[in-house]
Specification:
3-stranded antiparallel beta sheet; single chain; 2 domains; BirA Bifunctional Protein, domain 2
């Protein structure tokens, strides 16, 4: 099918660029891009492609369509301008010509994913909190129970603006500000940008987006955390989604775990997306460490809580079949017009 797409793209490009009149251009458009056009036939044939190849073929189809539509508009503009000039100077502006349709903006895949995530938590009774991206050492590390020699504090991992001023590496800093400002019960989610000294590649970036969750009240247990993340996973990926926890370590939670959901593509059978495991890791979670609660003045004998954090880029990439994180920041219209 990829060869058919390449062949069609070459023939359609030649027909559109070689059109000598608006009528010829319209004939080429109908033949290749119309509702009954050749590209539409290939698009309908994607159901016969192996399931693991469908995201790639679908992306190629969308890219080919976007390129051909761009060539179509460029050639139409050139032919219309030529037609106007051929009429003579007295008719340079023809007010009877129809207006050109403009592209309608859609939601960026990152924002669309975040909106859906927030909608789930708002339905669970959470509120949305925010905090500064430029933090001091206390909120960035000390109040989150980081030991003084933790490697996350190194200049190789954190962006320092001054000795005691840094760019936050996680939205957990807002947890402290929220708890300092109000007494329990606390139920908030914190979306926002974070910054780390990571090398840009297909799955990492120095600037990324995170969604943090925090719940503190009397009698909160790990079972509440599991139920919350289960509801979140099913809201994003479907009612058959399950949640798995594995022990992990984070300075501000104890016990800590990394959590995963059943693969939305193969539903646990194992596929290319989940690397055969049947699970997709989403983030870290755990019960808020008593030292953190005590640091904001909460009674640790009375209150307990849980926290979790997920990367929004990972959700968007898995959800829309985007293979490279850098595409999300590129501003490339060939990608954005697909949403």
């Amino acid at each position: 099918m990829e060869e058919r797409l390449k062949d069609l793209s070459m023939r359609a490009r030649a027909a559109l660029e070689g059109a000598r009149s608006l009528d010829e251009l319209e004939e080429a458009r109908a033949r290749y891009l119309g509702r009954s056009g050749l590209l539409r036939e290939i698009q309908q044939g994607i159901r016969d492609v192996a399931q693991e190849l469908r995201p790639r073929i679908g992306q190629l189809i969308n890219t080919t369509k976007a390129d051909l539509e761009r060539i179509l508009e460029e050639r139409r503009g050139a032919l219309e301008e030529l037609k106007i000039h051929e009429r003579g100077d007295e008719q340079l502006i023809d007010v009877t010509l129809p207006g050109r349709a403009q592209y309608s903006a859609g939601r960026h895949p990152l924002l669309a994913t975040l909106d859906d995530m927030l909608e789930i938590f708002l339905g669970l009774g959470y509120t949305i909190a925010s905090g500064p991206e430029v933090e001091n050492y206390h909120y960035g590390f000390e109040a989150l129970n980081y030991p003084a020699d933790h490697p996350a504090m190194d200049e190789q991992a954190t962006f320092y603006i001054a000795e005691d001023v840094l760019l936050r590496s996680q939205t957990s800093t807002v947890q402290i500000r929220v708890m300092e400002a109000q007494e329990p019960p606390v139920r908030v989610v914190v979306p926002g940008r974070c910054f780390r000294r990571d090398t840009m590649d297909a799955t990492h970036s120095h600037t990324f987006h995170q969604l943090e969750g925090l719940c503190v009240d009397e009698g909160v247990t790990f079972a509440d955390l599991k139920g919350t993340l289960l509801a979140f996973g099913r809201g994003m990926f479907g009612e058959d989604t399950q949640v798995r926890f594995r022990p992990d370590f984070f300075p501000f939670t104890e016990p800590s775990a990394e959590f995963a959901v059943t693969c939305f593509n193969c539903h646990g059978d194992g596929c290319r997306i989940c690397k055969g495991s049947g699970w997709i890791e989403l983030g870290g979670a755990g019960m808020v460490d008593p030292n953190v609660l005590a640091g904001v003045g909460y009674d640790t004998e009375r209150y307990t809580g849980f926290a979790f954090g997920v990367g929004i880029e990972r959700f968007a990439m898995n959800r829309y079949g985007i293979p490279d994180m850098r595409l999300l920041y590129s501003g490339d219209m060939r990608l954005l017009r697909q949403f």
